[in-house]
Amino acid sequence: MYEEIKAQMVDVCHKMWQLGWVAANDGNLSVKVGENRFLATPTGISKCYITEDKLLLIDGEANVIEGQEGYKPSSEIKMHLRCYQEREDVGSVLHAHPPTATGFAVAHVPLDSYSMIETVICVGAVPLTPYGTPSTYEVPDAIAPYLKDHDVMLLTNHGALTVGADVITAYYRMETLELQAKISLNARLLGGEVEISRPNIDRLISMRSKYKVTGRHPGYRKYNPDGSVKNTD
């Protein structure tokens, strides 16, 4: 049961490790597979060693329904479950530590430059959510206010979070985030990013439906390091 989804999850886990987005036992991935049913990666296992038989079927309270004896979901599953609770359109949640994007999270710098066409269309500004201690409800409480308008978030001093209608979409958004972070960093080293003009930003955002881009978009928005919205009037 769920063979195709499990295969996709394993593939994404292996890609995360190969790309250097996770080390040791870092990162976690989940997919909604039914009413109050989720597949999730187990805690304590490197993503390079994840296989289909190691994935867990859990309920909305993180109770294990099916899985190998002794395996349990990550303590970060609270963050995943909050995403599903807040948004019915979310079908998968991915948490990782892509180095360049996480560098922005560690430096307390939101990725809110509208300087790359593809990112303007697909993601928009990426906020820096308030600090939360891992494994506690501080993290899900910190991300909840941003879920209404964002599919991609930086977690202060922690890493990154993406959501999508399915596992591949969540993965692609993490790829987009890390590429944007690399380009942004390079541009800053070369003297600074130059934003697209506001009329063209608005035009690009309006083209999302043409390109069949799903999910949420914040529109034109800028953020302070504490996660609050800047006045852009």
Mean pLDDT across all residues, rounded? 96
Helix-strand pattern, N to C?
A: HEEEEHEHHEHEEHH
Class computed from helices, strands and strand pairing: alpha+beta
Q: Compute the number of structural domains.
A: 1
What gap, in angstroms, lies between the N and C termini? 52 Å
Q: How many strands appear in the DSSP assignment?
A: 8
Looking at the structure, the CATH topology is L-fuculose-1-phosphate Aldolase
CATH class: Alpha Beta
Supply the key terms.
8 strands; globular; single chain; eight-stranded mixed beta sheet; alpha+beta; L-fuculose-1-phosphate Aldolase; 15% strand; 233 residues
Architecture overview:
The chain has 233 residues and is of the alpha+beta class. It has a single domain, classed as L-fuculose-1-phosphate Aldolase (3-Layer(aba) Sandwich). The protein has 7 helices and 8 strands. Helix 2 (77-86) runs parallel beside helix 5. The longest helix has 23 residues, at 167-189. The chain is globular, with a radius of gyration of 17 Å.
Describe the structure concisely for a colleague.
By secondary structure, the chain is α+β, with helices and mostly antiparallel strands. It has helices at 3-18, 77-86, 99-107, 117-122, 138-147, 167-189, 198-206; strands spanning 28-34, 37-40, 56-58, 64-66, 92-96, 128-129, 152-155, 159-164.
Write the layout of secondary structure elements.
Elements: H1 3-18, E1 28-34, E2 37-40, E3 56-58, E4 64-66, H2 77-86, E5 92-96, H3 99-107, H4 117-122, E6 128-129, H5 138-147, E7 152-155, E8 159-164, H6 167-189, H7 198-206
